[in-house]
Structure formats: C-alpha cells, structure tokens
C-alpha cells in the first residue's frame, strides 16, 4: 500500500497516525471539516480534502478524489458512519476503524477479541451522542465492520483503552501530571491498586498501520501498553519522570467524603480492573513503546503545553480538607 486517507487527522490519534504513515513513506490525505488547526498545513506531503464525514455525499466525493489504498477512520462515532464508509471504500485494500475497549460489554480479565461479549446497541443508542452510549455505539460500529468483511470488504477494527500522550485533548493524564508537578503530597483514591488499561498514542498509530498492512478482514485487534501499572504506580512514575519527590496519600470513600469527593471523581480511576489482551496484535509484529519512554514524552509535552487537566478531577482545596482529616487519624 502506498496511499492513505485519514478521516480526521488533526487532533490526537489521527495526528499521530499521519506522522507514522509519513514515516513509512505513505502518500497521505486527511479528510475533515477544517474546523481545527491543521498541523500539516505547511507539509506538502499531506493533502487536505475538506468535508463533513457525516455527509455521505462529501465522503463519496473524497473517495472518488483520493482513491486511497488504505482508509483509517478516526472519527466514526455512530454505526451509520461506519456502514457508509465501508460501502464507499469497499474497493480499498484496507479500511481500519478506530473502535474502543469500551465496546466490551462484560467485565473479564483480560478482555479478548472474539471471546468477551460486546455491548448491545439499541436504535436509540445508535443515534445518541451521550457518553453513556459511547461503548454501545462503538460495539455496533465493530459489528458494521464484521458485516462489511462478510460482504468482501477488507475491513478491520482496532480497540484502544484510555489513550495518552502528546496533544491529548482529554487532559486526563495532564491532571495527574499537574498534581505531581505542583504538590508534594498527592491523594490517590482507594488503596492505589486500581488498574485501567492505558495505551500510548504513538502505539495506537502504529497499530492502525500494521493492522491495515497485515490484519485479517473481519477481525478486531486490542491495543494497549504491554506493561500495565496501577494508579499508584503511574503517579510514582510521573514523579520519577519529573525528578521530584512525591508523597502518595491513600484516601478511601469515608475520608474523601469529608471533601465532598467520590472515588470516581478522579480521572483514570475505575472500580473494576479494565485490561485488554494485546497478544493478537503482537502476533502481527506490533510492539509497545517502553512505559518509561512513553511517560517521558507525555510529561515533556505537558510541560510545554498550557494543559493542566483542570476540571477533570477534584479541586485541590477539597483535597486539602481530606488531607487535614487524614492527619488527625
């Protein structure tokens, strides 16, 4: 494959995907509405076609204009988007849909492709835009990929969990980096052993390309850091990366309640472990960036940005009330 169309391509996963494709000598075109700053505006290696991917006519025009070998769908949030794209790009060598680990509908350790059941999706959920239906919609998008493959389209899905790294607009990890960077004592909810699988964004980008090149039609592939860490270990790693001393203070539900804080108020906290098996993707030759290296890049990007994650977690004043209570125990 020599040419690629990235639907999206300017914000986070798509942005890193474009860089990865360029590094592997693809001719790249991005297709989006042009409402966000284009980091590749001055790069003559990247063409830009403007249009709304939810408009089938605009998407069809892009398919005709670009005629790509591979299509990477980074901004398909509704099943109808996937069905339209797999129909319009049916003759391409590969169509890869960015799904999500949230598509899984059962709590299993680990969650495996083809074994762990996916969420169901009602008609109402399929057209909803709320966070509550996100996993349902992603699961239905996966089923659209499988249906397209049954019709002869080389369509595949990649399922990342929480994605972090440079240009992360969600700022979930930024909240924790900011805490460790500014304060000597950091409150960690619960006992710190919570595990929510995460994945470095450049590894998602390479996974998408590798699946396009080597994946099997009709298959989904989990992607995630090969080395998992607990929430406490993540905070400690941030401290090591920043070369700063950090005291981790555990606080359970009763202690947090003194600051009117709940466990789930903390970003990257999840009551039940969320772990994806990545063996299937690794069998294609994909490799994960060493965790220390990935965190160093994420921290460097945070320090160079104006992101602080504010609003993603509890106010520090509320945490101070919790810390004062813990000091009396």
Reconstruct the topology from this structure:
Elements: E1 3-7, H1 13-23, E2 27-32, E3 46-50, H2 56-66, E4 70-73, H3 79-88, E5 94-98, H4 123-127, H5 134-150, E6 155-159, E7 162-164, H6 172-182, E8 185-189, E9 198-200, H7 201-214, E10 220-222, H8 231-242, E11 247-251, H9 253-257, H10 279-282, H11 291-304, H12 316-328
Parallel strand pairs: 1-2, 1-4, 2-3, 4-5, 5-6, 6-10, 7-9, 8-11
Helix pairs in contact: 1-7, 3-5, 6-8, 8-11
Key terms:
329 residues, alpha/beta, Rossmann fold, UDP-galactose 4-epimerase, domain 1, 2 domains, 7-stranded parallel β-sheet, two-stranded parallel ribbon, Epimerase_deHydtase, Lipid_A_modif_metabolic_enz, NAD(P)-bd_dom_sf, NAD-dependent epimerase/dehydratase family protein
Using the coordinates shown, work out and report the CATH topology of the largest domain: Rossmann fold
The CATH top-level class label of the largest domain: Alpha Beta
Large-scale geometry: globular
Structural class: alpha/beta
- Strand arrangement, major sheet: 3-2-1-4-5-6-10
Mean pLDDT: 97
Low-pLDDT regions: none
Protein name: NAD-dependent epimerase/dehydratase family protein
Organism: Natrinema altunense
Domain NAD-dependent epimerase/dehydratase: 4-224
Region (Disordered): 108-137, 301-320
């Amino acid at each position: 494959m020599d040419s690629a169309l990235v639907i999206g391509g300017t914000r986070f996963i798509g942005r890193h995907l474009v860089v990865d494709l360029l590094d592997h000598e693809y001719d790249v075109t991005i297709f989006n509405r042009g409402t966000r700053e284009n980091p590749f505006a001055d790069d003559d290696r990247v063409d830009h076609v403007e249009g709304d991917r939810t408009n089938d006519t605009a998407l069809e025009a892009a398919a005709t204009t670009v005629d790509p070998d591979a299509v990477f769908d980074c901004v398909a949030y509704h099943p109808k988007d996937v069905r339209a794209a797999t129909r319009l790009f049916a003759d391409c060598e590969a169509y890869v849909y960015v799904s999500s680990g949230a598509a899984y509908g059962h709590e299993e350790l680990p969650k495996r492709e083809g074994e762990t059941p996916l969420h169901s999706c009602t008609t109402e959920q399929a057209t909803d835009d709320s966070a509550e239906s996100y996993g349902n919609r992603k699961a239905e998008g996966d089923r659209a990929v499988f249906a397209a493959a049954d019709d002869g389209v080389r369509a595949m899905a990649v399922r990342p969990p929480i994605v972090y790294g440079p240009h992360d607009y969600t700022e979930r990890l930024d909240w924790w980096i900011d805490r460790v960077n500014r304060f000597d004592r950091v409150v960690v909810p619960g006992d710190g052993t919570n595990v929510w699988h995460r994945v470095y964004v450049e590894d998602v980008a390479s996974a998408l390309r590798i699946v396009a090149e080597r994946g099997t039609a009709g298959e989904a592939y989990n992607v995630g850091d090969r080395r998992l860490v607990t929430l406490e270990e993540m905070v400690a790693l941030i401290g090591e990366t920043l070369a700063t001393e950090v005291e981790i203070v555990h606080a359970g539900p009763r202690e947090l309640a003194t600051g009117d804080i709940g466990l789930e108020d903390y970003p990257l906290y999840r009551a039940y472990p969320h772990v994806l098996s990545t063996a299937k993707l690794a069998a294609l030759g994909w490799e994960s960036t060493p965790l220390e290296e990935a965190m160093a890049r994420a921290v460097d990007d945070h320090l160079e940005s104006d992101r602080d994650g504010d609003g993603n977690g509890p106010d520090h004043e509320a945490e101070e009330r919790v810390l004062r209570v813990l000091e009396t125990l």
